[in-house]
């Protein structure tokens, strides 16, 4: 039985045991969580572009994105049968709230309540994107110096005992100098958090602004992201760093035919006039007698939707014939924005791990509920939970992955990429773990596994290896053996 | 430098006045007055006006600098940042010079970029790169210095840049229209405002961000709220580049650089007016010194009845001038006492600040696990130490100004008595109310000299950056956690607790060591600076006292010689009147330079 099935079974028992007691809702919630979509929280500093990224991921303008500071309450966006908004106060029962849509963005009427009295807002929104993942928008983090001294970090490693709200956390990084303290500020959001390097992704946001609108901005952004990925401090905090131009992604996802036609009109302009028009945002929206193809208001609309960079990129793509239709331009903008790469990473790297994370959260929740119970049924449940936890190799893998990133495991530097891959850092499928193409024949996989087992056994048995090295190598050997067994099952069934 | 062609009318007048004064000084063999005239001449013919371009990382400082001087000299890259200050000044050719400590080496201009950016590996990272360009903008002695991004006070460059601001004539702070000024930026601007007289805040990239107007307004509000007196000007470097390429005045106006350069010019001409005024005051004083012997002689010859009283006065003046020069002069005591007080106050201030840093860091260590806060502890401690050093530097600077004011007051007490006594005779110079004016001129000279002494402290801050971080502890925490996790959670809490105590102790030790090293370094720099300041003030006022000594002695000698003369005094009196008239005319012209209405 897989880990998640075991967790589901024990939670099912628990639901029976706690039926009708005050603890029942918590158990039911844990069960729902097991079956629900991936929960992705978006965290980062004020004005880092969190809401823009959220809209780009949903493909719809839902979260308000003002130049001021907008998100003040943690807001969940989840798939629903109907449109609805529920407000969960810190004390008391959740209640439905009225909302309006202002230029697309959802404006929730909080009534008399103050933002600080609200725990969270949950927005149900029928959407294909939200069916795959629930998104959690968070208020920006206050400055580092203010909260660091007040906050007491939990001494225990976060993956040891606490359940997490989110399966994955996207941390929006600004492009800052590595010597800047605020560089790492994005990672100090404890509210959503309990993030560990294995469930966190760094997002280099506002990638289109890096070159101040030059067409090669995105290349610069991916170069910077590549450097950040190698940064030792960041490696301890997140799995990878991906550059994303949120505005471009949002624009690409919802590009209309009208907008495409407007952009195409700009391509028709003589080079000199177009150059003058695109020189600055002011010029772009100004009244200009010689530019009669678009009204200033139409140009202003394009600017707010795509930004100067998005407009330049679109003109380039339409002009050189690589995007002759609205659909192709939309695809082009989306792929340039990095939003698809982010989504792929979320699903390839986290989808497999998600079950483990969810099972873990569910078991931890149950564990907490059982602490003050003394009945025989509860004792039985507790021993079940303990058995699953002890048996699940997935938890050991996760812990080790975390350790490799955060602490010294004594593993050789040259071994680390392989170790991480075998432990499932890049996806939990066998091919992903071995670094092979999908559909690699089983016998090749088997050979590769056998040689990996040999190698890591030698590491574990090395006379000079210390405890940490032995433990790490042993976990990796077990992972390989597990894969071998799976291949065997596959060939016999 | 062919700057002579760029002189303003007033500066030309100042030069003629200096020339006349130099001729007079030579004619009357007062070589002791030569040097100050030579210095004055240099201030007009080879002025230097330093603008520092400062701001956060990646705000477009180098692009702005390039656009200003119309040359791609500062490397601009999306990722790699400037790591060495680059000064750009006028020269007949394009050239680059690497400056490290006292040595300098010429390099081809196209290689300069390699030394300026951080990513390129070089054996030696110079302290500064100096570039010369044949540019009209720079011809009047303007020097533009591009600096590494400060990243607020918390970055390594922050403190060094702030130190540099204390010696700049103006600061152009660069932010951009992507967001409002942040708290660290405002903090930096506050320091800059206190350290430098002229401050401008430039909002770059207005060509790219549609919301730039709102940002400019918000920035103005933030500056007002923080009580910082600085104009906010939106600019666009790409539009300026286009304007330079096409030679379009309209585009230059649109780019905002027209305003920026106007502002720079404004501050520049303010400084040049101040220089001319100082020169006027200097020459008025020199004229008085030159005139004194002639007036003394004339008085003796013209009014034999009063000669005894006059000789007594002159002798009294000479004695007082001797006292002013002597080791027992009041101003010397004031200087010695003041420096001692200043030293102990500034050290106390530093000690307090460092104590506070240690206390806060201790608190952080006590309340958190070292492994979880290591990055912050290191960063926050380094930041707090830098802040403490900068604040201490500010205290030192302010107190230095107070010290100069006190020493000056004591000196002027003595000097004005001498002038009063010497001016008892019939003198036209008395009409000029010499006292106050001369005093302010001396004062300006003293401040300039002493602040140069502070430069030591600033280079100290650069040194301090090389102190590096609190290395060597990062390895402690991990072992603890590895054990903890592998041994399986709850059972090892006791062991963890013990290890936690050990880790905390090491963290504390490492932190203290760092703070102490920084405090020692800073203390040493402060002491060295104070020595330099003391020496410079002693030399400045000592030199002035010597002038009084020479003038009063000359006056007394002239009067005594006149006593021995016999026969008809009328021709000699006529000669003397002519001399006195000539000097008075010089003094009058010099005095005109000090009047504000002598503007162009």
**Biggest interface, chains and residue tallies:** A-B, 54 and 57 residues
Shape of chain A, please? globular
Helix content bin of chain A: 40-55%
Number of helices of chain A: 21
**What's the total number of strands of chain B?**
9
The percentage of residues in β strands of chain A lies in 5-15%
Oligomer: heterodimer
Q: Give the topology string of chain B: H per helix, E per strand.
A: HHEHEEEHEEHEHEHEHHHHHHHHHH
First-to-last CA distance of chain A: 16 Å
Global mean pLDDT of chain B: 78
Low-pLDDT stretches of chain A are 142-162, 178-183, 188-194
Overall 3D geometry of chain B? globular
Strands of the largest sheet of chain B, in order across it? 4-3-5-2-6-1-7-8-9
Structural account:
The complex is a heterodimer of chains A (493) and B (600). By secondary structure, chain A is α/β, with parallel strands linked by helices. Helices cover 52% and strands 11% of the residues of chain A. In chain A, the strands form 2 sheets. A 9-stranded mixed β-sheet of chain A has the order 4-3-7-2-8-1-9-10-11. A two-stranded antiparallel sheet of chain A has the order 5-6. In chain A, a hairpin with a 2-residue loop joins strand 5 and strand 6. In chain A, helix 20 packs antiparallel against helix 21. By secondary structure, chain B is α/β, with parallel strands linked by helices. Helix content of chain B is 66%, strand content 9%. Chain B has 17 helices and 9 strands. A 9-stranded mixed β-sheet of chain B has the order 4-3-5-2-6-1-7-8-9, sandwiched between helices. In chain B, helix 7 links the parallel strand 8 and strand 9. The longest helix of chain B has 72 residues.
């Amino acid at each position: 039985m897989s880990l998640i099935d075991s967790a589901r079974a024990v939670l099912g028992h628990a639901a029976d045991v706690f039926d009708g007691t005050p603890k029942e809702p918590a158990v039911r919630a844990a069960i729902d969580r097991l079956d629900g979509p991936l929960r992705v929280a978006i965290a980062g500093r004020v004005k880092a572009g969190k809401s823009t990224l959220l809209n780009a991921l949903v493909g719809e303008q839902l979260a308000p994105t003002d130049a001021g500071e907008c998100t003040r309450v943690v807001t969940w966006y989840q798939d629903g049968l109907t449109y609805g908004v529920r407000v969960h106060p810190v004390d008391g029962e959740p209640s439905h709230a009225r909302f309006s849509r202002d230029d697309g963005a959802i404006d929730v009427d909080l009534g008399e309540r103050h933002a600080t009295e609200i725990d969270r807002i949950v927005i149900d929104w029928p959407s294909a994107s939200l069916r795959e993942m629930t998104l959690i928008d968070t208020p920006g983090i206050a400055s580092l110096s203010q909260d660091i001294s007040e906050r007491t970090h939990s001494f225990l490693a976060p993956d040891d005992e606490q359940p997490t709200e989110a399966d994955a956390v996207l941390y929006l990084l600004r492009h800052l100098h590595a010597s800047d303290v605020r560089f790492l500020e994005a990672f100090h959001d404890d509210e959503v958090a309990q993030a560990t390097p294995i469930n966190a992704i760094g997002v280099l946001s506002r990638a289109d602004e890096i070159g101040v609108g030059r067409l090669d901005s995105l290349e610069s952004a991916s170069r910077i992201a590549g450097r950040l990925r190698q940064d030792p401090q960041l490696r301890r905090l997140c799995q990878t760093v991906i550059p994303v131009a949120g505005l471009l992604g949002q624009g690409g996802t919802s590009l209309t035919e009208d907008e495409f036609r407007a952009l195409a009109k700009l391509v028709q302009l003589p080079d000199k006039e177009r150059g003058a028009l695109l020189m600055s945002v002011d010029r772009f929206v100004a009244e200009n007698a010689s530019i009669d193809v678009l009204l200033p208001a139409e140009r202003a609309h394009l600017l707010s939707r795509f930004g100067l960079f998005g407009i330049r990129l679109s003109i380039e793509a339409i002009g050189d014939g690589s995007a002759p239709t609205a659909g192709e331009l939309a695809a082009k903008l989306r792929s340039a924005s990095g939003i698809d790469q982010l989504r792929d990473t979320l699903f390839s790297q986290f989808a497999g791990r998600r079950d483990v994370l969810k099972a873990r959260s569910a078991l931890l929740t149950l564990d907490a509920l059982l602490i003050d119970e003394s009945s025989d049924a509860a004792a039985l449940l507790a021993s079940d939970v303990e058995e699953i936890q002890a048996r699940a190799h997935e938890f050991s893998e996760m812990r080790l992955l975390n350790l490799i990133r955060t602490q010294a495991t004594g593993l050789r530097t040259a071994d680390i990429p392989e170790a991480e891959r075998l432990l499932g850092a890049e996806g939990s499928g066998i091919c992903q773990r071995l670094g092979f193409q999908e559909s690699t024949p089983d016998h090749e996989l088997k050979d590769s596994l056998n040689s990996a087992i040999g190698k890591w056994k030698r590491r574990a048995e090395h006379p000079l290896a210390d405890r940490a090295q032995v433990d790490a190598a042993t976990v990796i050997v077990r992972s390989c053996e597990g894969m071998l067994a799976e291949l065997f099952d596959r060939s016999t069934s | 430098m062919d700057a002579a062609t760029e002189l303003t009318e007033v500066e030309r007048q100042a030069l003629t006045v200096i020339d006349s004064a130099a001729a007079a000084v030579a004619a009357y063999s007062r070589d002791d007055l030569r040097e100050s005239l030579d210095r004055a001449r240099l201030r007009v013919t080879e002025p230097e006006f330093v603008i520092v371009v400062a701001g956060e990382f990646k705000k477009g400082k180098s692009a702005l600098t390039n656009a200003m001087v119309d040359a791609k000299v500062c490397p601009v890259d999306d990722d790699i940042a400037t790591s060495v200050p680059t000064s750009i000044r006028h020269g007949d050719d394009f050239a680059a010079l690497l400056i490290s400590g006292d040595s300098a080496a010429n390099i081809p201009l196209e290689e300069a970029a390699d030394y300026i950016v951080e990513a390129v590996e070089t054996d030696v990272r110079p302290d500064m790169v100096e570039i010369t360009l044949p540019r009209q903008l720079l011809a009047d002695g303007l020097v533009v210095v591009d600096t590494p991004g400060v990243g607020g006070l918390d970055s390594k460059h922050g403190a060094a840049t702030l130190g540099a601001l204390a010696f700049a004539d103006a600061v152009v702070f660069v932010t951009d229209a992507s967001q409002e000024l942040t708290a660290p930026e405002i903090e930096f601007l506050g320091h800059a405002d206190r350290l430098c007289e002229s401050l401008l805040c430039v909002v770059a990239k207005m060509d790219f961000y549609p919301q730039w107007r709102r940002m400019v307004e918000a920035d103005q509000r933030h500056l007002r709220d923080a009580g910082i007196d600085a104009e906010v000007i939106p600019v666009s470097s790409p539009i300026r580049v286009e304007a330079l390429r096409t030679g379009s005045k309209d585009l230059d106006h649109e780019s905002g650089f027209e305003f920026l350069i106007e502002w720079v010019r404004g501050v520049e001409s303010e400084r040049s007016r101040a220089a001319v005024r100082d020169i006027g005051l200097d020459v008025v004083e020199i004229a008085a010194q030159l005139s004194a012997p002639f007036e003394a002689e004339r008085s003796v010859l013209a009014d034999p009845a009063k000669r005894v009283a006059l000789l007594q006065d002159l002798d009294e003046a000479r004695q007082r001038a001797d006292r002013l020069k002597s080791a027992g002069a009041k101003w010397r005591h004031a200087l010695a006492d003041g420096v001692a007080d200043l030293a102990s106050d500034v050290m106390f201030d530093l000690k307090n600040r460092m104590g506070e840093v240690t206390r806060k860091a201790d608190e952080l260590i006590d309340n958190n696990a070292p492994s979880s806060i290591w990055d912050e502890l290191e960063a926050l401690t380094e930041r707090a130490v830098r802040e403490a050093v900068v604040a201490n530097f500010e205290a030192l600077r302010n107190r230095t100004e107070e010290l100069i004011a006190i020493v000056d007051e004591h000196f002027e007490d003595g000097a004005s008595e001498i002038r009063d006594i010497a001016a008892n005779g019939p003198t036209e110079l008395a009409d000029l109310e010499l006292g106050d004016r001369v005093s302010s001129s001396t004062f300006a000279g003293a401040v300039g000299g002493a602040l140069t002494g502070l430069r030591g402290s600033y280079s100290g801050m650069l040194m301090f950056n090389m102190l590096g971080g609190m290395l060597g502890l990062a390895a402690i925490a991990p072992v603890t956690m590895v054990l903890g996790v592998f041994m399986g959670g709850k059972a090892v809490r006791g062991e963890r607790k013990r290890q936690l105590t050990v880790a905390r102790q090491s963290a504390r030790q490492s932190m203290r060591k760092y703070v102490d090293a920084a405090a020692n370094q800073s203390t040493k720099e402060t002491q060295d600076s104070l020595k330099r300041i003391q020496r410079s003030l002693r030399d400045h006022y000592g030199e002035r006292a010597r002038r009084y000594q020479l003038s009063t002695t000359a006056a007394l000698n002239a009067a005594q010689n006149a006593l021995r003369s016999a026969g008809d005094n009328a021709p000699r009196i006529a000669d003397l009147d002519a001399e006195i008239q000539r000097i008075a005319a010089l003094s009058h012209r010099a005095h005109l330079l000090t009047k504000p209405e002598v503007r162009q």
